[in-house]
Write a sequence for this structure.
């Protein structure tokens, strides 16, 4: 298990991590989402031991990560911009990873390179962005580390390759002790693959929870209540994050169980009432609006 205990990191006047406390359970896929500059990459680099927190602890299986070679050998970090040696081909990078990770599965790697249609003797510098990302993912998976940290790893991959990578992740989780942490701006992608999600904004962790639980505790309620007084009573009884009105139709993003919100609307004499589950993208927008990150600030 990865544990973050009151982790704080500042770069001059920029608070990249603001007293973050969270945990990533083993055998699950954890998604890290956040606004631009929220601190996602910094957090991943602290988890893999590249950056030292100013305060707090980053632990993997109960042991500190920073300057701990034994622990760091079980963590592989894939940057959003993969680095390869100048003029290196796939086989040269494979051989280098084999020196870093004793459990590297060469047979599996060579097999996957062939299946993905990559040329092992071709210089990686001549590959497209998506192909470079593919090589990075295959190197990370075949390193056979317990933890794999992916920073915008799916960016640039076509839909077929994305689906193939998801299948590989699922297969690894089923067959060995494997826990991926995936940072991405593609929230639809994370929604498909992640078991749990952490939401970062301006260095603060707004929430971290299993995705199913997050969705169960927030919904969109649409209703039409003819009596203004009863409508106001219902509004006062709900924990509303966002509300807008179109004619007589009231649309609210509500925190709490869907059943409770729907029952309140019906008890208030609604002639129409329904609840709609939110997508991860809608949840992200709602939560960051509460934190002061509103789309209206960008429009004039």
């Amino acid at each position: 298990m990865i544990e973050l205990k009151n982790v704080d990191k500042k770069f001059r006047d920029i608070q990249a991590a603001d007293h973050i406390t969270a945990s990533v359970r083993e055998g699950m896929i954890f998604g890290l989402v956040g606004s631009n500059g929220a601190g996602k990459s910094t957090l991943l680099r602290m988890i893999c031991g590249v950056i030292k927190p100013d305060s707090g602890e980053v632990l993997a299986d109960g042991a500190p990560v920073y300057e701990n070679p034994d622990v760091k050998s079980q963590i592989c970090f894939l940057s959003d911009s993969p680095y390869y040696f100048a003029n290196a081909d796939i086989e040269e990078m494979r051989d280098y990873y084999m020196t870093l990770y004793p459990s590297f599965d060469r047979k599996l790697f060579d097999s996957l390179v062939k299946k993905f249609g990559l040329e092992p003797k071709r210089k990686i510098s001549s590959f497209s962005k998506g192909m470079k990302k593919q090589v990075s993912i295959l190197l990370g998976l075949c390193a056979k580390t317990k933890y794999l940290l992916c920073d915008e790893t799916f960016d640039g991959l076509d839909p077929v390759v994305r689906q193939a990578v998801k299948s590989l992740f699922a297969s690894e989780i089923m067959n060995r002790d494997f826990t991926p942490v995936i940072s991405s701006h593609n929230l639809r992608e994370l929604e498909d693959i992640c078991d749990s999600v952490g939401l970062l904004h301006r260095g603060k962790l707004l929430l971290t929870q299993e995705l199913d639980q997050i969705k169960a505790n927030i919904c969109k309620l649409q209703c039409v209540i003819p009596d203004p007084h009863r409508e106001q009573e219902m509004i006062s009884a709900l924990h509303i994050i966002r509300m807008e009105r179109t004619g007589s139709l009231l649309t609210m993003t509500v925190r709490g169980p869907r059943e409770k919100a729907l029952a309140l609307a019906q008890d208030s004499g609604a002639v129409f009432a329904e609840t709609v589950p939110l997508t991860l993208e809608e949840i992200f927008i709602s939560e960051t609006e509460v934190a002061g990150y509103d789309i209206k600030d960008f429009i004039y």
